[in-house]
Write a structure and sequence with these properties.
Layout: H1 2-21, E1 27-33, E2 36-43, H2 54-60, H3 67-70, H4 80-130, H5 146-183, E3 189-191, E4 200-202, H6 225-255, H7 276-282, E5 286-287, E6 292-293, H8 318-330, H9 336-350
Helix pairs in contact: 4-5, 4-6, 4-8, 5-6, 5-7
């Protein structure tokens, strides 16, 4: 074996020497050994070495680049020293934003549950007052003004539950607005000049060339900032659609009354509380330019309601009210399985449990 290695080494030296003597062309030398198959050496024409330069290094690089950075222009990429510090800052920011997103989801659930409870109590009080004149009171029938006093009590209960229902709706609007702001705060921008000895990052861009996504590099393991933003946008869209549908139900429920004339009369274009339109504009449900509200629609359905009723049925029957309460409970625009899947996917990417 030692003799074989020495023979190979000698052959390599002979091949190099032959290529040096015949560098004007290309020569092929074949060496045979009794115990070895053919070894072919093909030496190409020797080229004059050029002095090292950054230009020659760039020219010598292969054309195929990393797909994660090929779509990003070199001017958009921060310096390498900044990128090393950007990634930990981006990781902290993304963790914080998705932790907030999970908290706002719980805030929505609490507000929706509270709204459903007060809506149910409002409906029960309304139906009791509506059917009170025809109720059999038994031994209480001979009590003076019993029906009037009971009706007055039920009216006060309806006022209380209307106020609580509107408050719950306001909390749901706030929760969706928080989600929208959080979904837009995933990026991490460089604060101050890149050559500063103290590198800081912010959620606001100070440079138009700073995209805040680290040039598309993964934040944790695989997903870049754009992937986190896409999932957050999908999540927010579901709650925006559901909020708009619940607004329609709130208007209908706030309008029910046994009083004549109607004391609580709302329509779709009314502002239910001061500043509601400003809040709805933040979650893309109200256009300040056209001064119009977005009409309700269902998820995965491109067509919205063609026209909303101008005159509401202020005394709906029990079946219609049951449909309203069931629609509130079902949250047809929120795919609970998909929501849980999104939080699970994000948690696995960040190696934390945020659901």
């Amino acid at each position: 074996m030692i003799l074989f290695k020495r023979a190979i080494s000698k052959d390599l030296r002979l091949a190099t020497s032959a290529s040096a003597n015949n560098y004007a062309g290309t020569c092929t030398t074949v060496y045979r050994h009794p115990w070895q198959t053919n070894i072919n050496f093909q030496v190409k024409k020797m080229e004059t070495l050029e002095p090292y330069s950054q230009e020659s290094e760039r020219n010598s690089k292969p054309e195929t680049e990393n797909p994660s950075t090929s779509s990003v222009s070199p001017s958009a990429l921060p310096p390498a020293s900044v990128l090393r510090l950007w990634r930990p800052a981006a990781q902290r920011n993304v963790r914080n934003q998705w932790s907030k997103m999970a908290s706002y989801r719980q805030q929505w659930n609490l507000a929706s549950s509270s709204g459903r409870s007060h809506a149910t109590s409002l409906v029960n009080s309304y139906l009791s007052q509506r059917y009170l004149p025809s109720m059999e009171l038994g031994v209480l029938n001979d009590m003076r003004d019993i029906r009037e006093k009971a009706s007055f009590k039920l009216v006060k209960q309806q006022e209380h539950h209307r106020s609580k229902l509107l408050s719950a709706y306001k909390d749901m609007v706030a929760a969706v607005n928080y989600m929208v702001n959080t979904s837009r705060s995933m990026r991490c921008f460089l604060k101050g000049p890149s050559n500063s000895p103290l590198v800081q990052f912010s959620s606001y861009s100070e440079d138009v060339n700073d995209t805040g996504d680290g040039g598309g590099m993964p934040v944790f393991s695989f997903s870049p900032i754009a992937a986190f933003e896409k999932l957050a946008e999908e999540l927010v869209q579901m709650f925006e659609l559901e909020l708009n549908l619940k607004r329609l139900l709130v208007i209908e429920l706030l309008s029910i009354s046994c009083e004549t004339p109607q004391v609580n009369e709302f329509c779709w274009s009314d502002e239910l509380y001061p500043g509601e339109f400003d809040d709805l504009s933040m979650c893309n449900l109200y256009s300040k330019e056209n001064h119009q509200l977005v009409t309700p629609r269902l998820k995965d359905c491109n067509s919205a309601m063609h026209a909303l009723p101008i005159q509401h049925n202020h005394q709906p029957n029990q079946e219609i009210l049951q449909v309203y309460l069931t629609t509130w409970l079902a949250e047809v625009n929120v795919d609970t399985h998909r929501v849980n899947e999104i939080f699970t996917t994000i948690g696995e990417e960040m190696h934390v449990n945020i659901s």
